């Protein structure tokens, strides 16, 4: 019986595991995935506002009550919650962020020094010492340049072979940081024309203004005076014996000009005090240091005055005035004043800048200014620069930028001439130039002029053009192909071209030069395509769109995309090569730039047609470009993101309000989101240019236009919004409360989807001044975009 029972038991025992497994499967409950983190909900304290014929309610207006201690305590709690929320949402991207940060850091172009700037007998430059956060401003005699660059350790500044001290340290900004609470940010820096003094302004973070200091460059000591706070501008006079500077009022309006005699114990002399609250003051010296020009302007007028630099206390003389605000720069060259301006002609607005001139000693009152060049729609002058022997012009032909020069003095003619008649020398440039920046070019008596050339497919190139001989040198540019940068310390990578070959260059010859010397520009167009399109906006206006993508990773209708926009203040959209975007390009992303109305590069009318009550044009232009990318299969549907900085944040946020289903994600960096409240009750000081750009709420037409485009006022209800990462800072023109209010209201009104979070990333430091923080922030933004597209 025992044997029978044992046999029976063993006969059925092999079935038990299967039965148990079956029972376990039936009763097994998979663990629930962790619940997605819930966004913070700040308290609502509704407050009503009425203006003109409108009344609206703002439940989050308390966030901007900086003097309300209770409100600020609630704000602190809310900011802590936001910090925890973004950490929780992005926690699964920590490895990706670390990888991206390593990628971006490896591409950072850690120069030993900036490109040396020649001025008189000296070469001026900034360099970074090992282990230091901030640079050191130095100079060395150009005559000792060869000895300097032959040293293995040029930072030592001493040639042990010859026994000569080669380098002179002028300002150590690490020591300046100790003066200013651990932070060193310089806004202005001007060496006196006799090279004996340096006047510079440092940001005082505790008081939120710039402080003026003057340093004796021979002794290295700070001068006892002038030392002034809230300084916005400065100019040397009297061959370095006098310094003129502008001081702002408590609303940061530049309004007073003082003159300080260096070495004198007397009080600084007040030269100008502008009492009108809507009038702003600016000054600069002419490049030959013969005059100091004073600009006063408001929304209704612009004036330019001259001060004799040899006798700055002798008074100021009016040389130009016009109605409405205008850009006016006056230069002096061999007895003539040259005025570069976009002021209206005969009461009619002009679409671009033009150049005028008149003798310095003109006896007529008002002065009679004669035009230098005839208007030429095919060659629009964007900027000018003078030296003693040449006039250089940055010109625009359609959407292409070029640089040319003409010898000075120009022929004495009473009538304006076409630029082409002067046989300008066109300087060679790479393909796809998006912007040209004139360099400091301090040395008026040097015929070498420096420019920075920018392109979406090329790291910025700092180029010296020798205008007399036609030679040109790329003095600094990162080489991403060989993971190195063109070496500084006085050496250059040369691409010399004879003068004869540059004279009257035609397009065919330019192409020949480019084909031979493409490698000199370190252009990346072999790997990344750059294409230009004209996109029809809602009203038929053609909007320029630049599209950038990896030739290797382009797949039709399968690529995610990132569309950039700005469209404000008549400023050019920044389309420079950004090494952080390489991480997206190499992962198959399409990068696009929409030159919407309100921005620059296409004339004043283009700017005016995208500002104030026409601001909706720029928003609709951006939407049209976004639709073009999807409809033409550059970007996969539901994989398009928007990117906007400052006023560009307003553009992208307003476009999201208009078409929330068009975008899958967006990056808003220090955005301007609550235009209605900010323009109506500014907490941080605004300028006349801000109101000219976005409108005056006191004007009923402007008010209604603001209410139509304001991102905060037009958030849709019960609609699915894209995922948005908002980056804001406590050191920014637009307060943190704007970003916080917008985030809270979108979460309140829109359909909640944890896969489309609204995130707020707050920083306490000025990221632009710290490369580590730049990489960290860019890695977070890139990881956010990748996560949102893959979720």
Automatic annotation (TrEMBL):
InterPro entries in the record, alphabetically?
AB_hydrolase_fold, Pept_S9A_N, Peptidase_S9_cat, Peptidase_S9A, Serine_Peptidase_S9A
* Name the UniProt record assigns to this protein: Prolyl endopeptidase
Q: What class of enzyme is it?
A: hydrolase
Record carries keyword Hydrolase: yes
UniProt region (Disordered), positions on chain: 30-50
Q: Does the record carry Membrane as a key word?
A: no
> Can you tell me which residues the record assigns to a coiled coil?
none
Where composition is biased (Pro residues), the residues are 31-45
Known function: Serine peptidase whose precise substrate specificity remains unclear. Does not cleave peptides after a arginine or lysine residue. Regulates trans-Golgi network morphology and sorting by regulating the membrane binding of the AP-1 complex. May play a role in the regulation of synaptic vesicle exocytosis.
Reading the lineage from the top rank, the first entry is Eukaryota
């Amino acid at each position: 019986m025992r044997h029978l029972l044992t046999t029976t038991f063993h006969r059925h025992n092999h079935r038990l595991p299967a039965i148990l497994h079956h029972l376990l499967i039936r009763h097994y409950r998979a663990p629930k995935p962790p619940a997605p983190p819930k966004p913070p909900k700040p308290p609502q304290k509704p407050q009503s506002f009425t203006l003109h014929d409108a009344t609206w309610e703002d439940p989050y207006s308390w966030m901007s009550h900086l003097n309300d201690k209770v409100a600020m305590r609630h704000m602190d709690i809310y900011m802590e919650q936001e910090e925890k929320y973004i950490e929780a949402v992005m926690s699964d991207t920590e490895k990706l962020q670390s990888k991206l940060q390593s990628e971006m850091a490896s591409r950072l172009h850690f120069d030993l020094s900036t490109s040396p700037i020649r001025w008189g007998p000296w070469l001026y430059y900034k360099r970074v010492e090992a282990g230091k956060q901030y640079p050191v401003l130095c100079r060395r005699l150009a005559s000792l340049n060869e000895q300097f660059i032959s040293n293995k350790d040029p930072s030592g500044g001493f040639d042990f072979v010859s026994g000569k001290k080669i380098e002179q340290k002028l300002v150590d900004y690490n020591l300046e940081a100790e003066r200013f609470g651990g932070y060193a940010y310089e806004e202005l820096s001007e060496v006196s024309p006799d090279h004996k003094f340096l006047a510079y302004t440092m940001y005082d973070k505790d008081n939120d203004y710039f402080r003026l200091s003057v340093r004796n460059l021979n002794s290295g000591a700070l001068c006892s005076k002038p030392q002034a706070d809230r300084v916005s501008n400065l100019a040397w006079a009297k061959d370095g014996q006098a310094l003129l500077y502008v001081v702002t009022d408590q609303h940061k309006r530049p309004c007073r000009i003082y003159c300080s005699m260096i070495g004198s114990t007397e009080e600084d002399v007040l030269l100008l005090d502008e009492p009108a609250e809507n009038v702003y003051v600016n000054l600069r010296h002419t490049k030959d240091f013969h005059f100091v020009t004073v600009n006063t302007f408001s929304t209704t007028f612009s004036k330019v005055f001259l001060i004799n630099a040899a006798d700055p206390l002798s008074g100021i003389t009016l040389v130009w005035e016009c109605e409405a605000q205008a850009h006016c720069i006056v230069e002096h060259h061999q007895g003539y004043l040259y005025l570069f301006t976009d002021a209206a002609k005969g009461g009619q607005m002009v679409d671009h800048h033009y150049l005028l001139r008149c003798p310095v000693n003109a006896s007529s009152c008002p002065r009679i200014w004669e035009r230098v060049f005839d208007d030429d729609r095919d060659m629009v002058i964007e900027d000018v620069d003078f030296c003693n022997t040449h006039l250089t012009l940055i010109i625009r032909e359609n959407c292409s930028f070029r640089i040319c020069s003409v010898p000075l003095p120009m022929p004495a003619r009473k009538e304006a001439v076409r630029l082409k008649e002067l046989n300008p020398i066109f300087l060679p440039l790479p393909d796809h130039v998006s912007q040209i920046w004139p360099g400091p070019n301090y040395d008026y008596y040097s015929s070498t002029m420096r420019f920075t050339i920018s392109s979406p497919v090329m790291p910025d190139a700092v180029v010296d053009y020798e205008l007399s001989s036609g030679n040109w040198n790329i003095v600094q540019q990162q080489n991403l192909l060989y993971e190195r940068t063109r070496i500084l310390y006085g050496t250059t990578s040369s691409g010399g071209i004879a003068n004869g070959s540059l004279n009257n260059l035609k397009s065919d010859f330019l192409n020949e030069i480019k084909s031979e010397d493409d490698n000199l520009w370190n252009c990346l167009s072999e790997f990344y395509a750059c294409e230009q399109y004209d996109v029809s906006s809602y009203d038929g206006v053609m909007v320029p769109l630049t599209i950038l993508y990896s030739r290797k990773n382009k797949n039709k209708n399968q690529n995610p995309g990132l569309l950039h926009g700005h469209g404000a203040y008549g400023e050019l959209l920044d389309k420079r090569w950004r090494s952080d975007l390489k991480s997206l390009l190499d992962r198959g992303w399409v990068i696009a730039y929409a030159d919407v109305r309100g921005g620059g590069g296409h004339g004043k009318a283009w700017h005016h047609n995208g500002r104030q009550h026409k601001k909706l044009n720029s928003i609709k232009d951006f939407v049209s470009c976004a639709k073009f990318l999807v409809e033409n299969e550059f970007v996969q549907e539901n994989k398009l993101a928007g990117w906007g900085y400052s006023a560009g944040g307003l553009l992208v946020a307003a476009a999201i309000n208009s078409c929330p289903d068009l975008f899958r994600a967006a990056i808003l960096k220090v955005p301007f989101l609550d235009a209605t409240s900010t323009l109506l009750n500014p907490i941080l000081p605004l300028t006349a240019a801000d109101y000219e750009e976005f409108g005056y709420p006191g004007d009923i037409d402007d008010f209604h236009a603001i209410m139509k485009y304001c991102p905060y006022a037009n958030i849709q209800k019960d609609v699915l919004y894209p995922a948005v990462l908002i980056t804001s800072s406590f050191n920014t023109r637009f307060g943190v409360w704007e970003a916080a209010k917008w985030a809270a209201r979108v979460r309140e009104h829109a359909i909640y989807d944890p896969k489309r979070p609204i995130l707020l990333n707050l920083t306490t430091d000025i990221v632009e001044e710290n490369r580590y923080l730049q990489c960290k922030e860019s890695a977070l933004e890139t990881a956010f975009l990748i996560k949102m597209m893959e979720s």
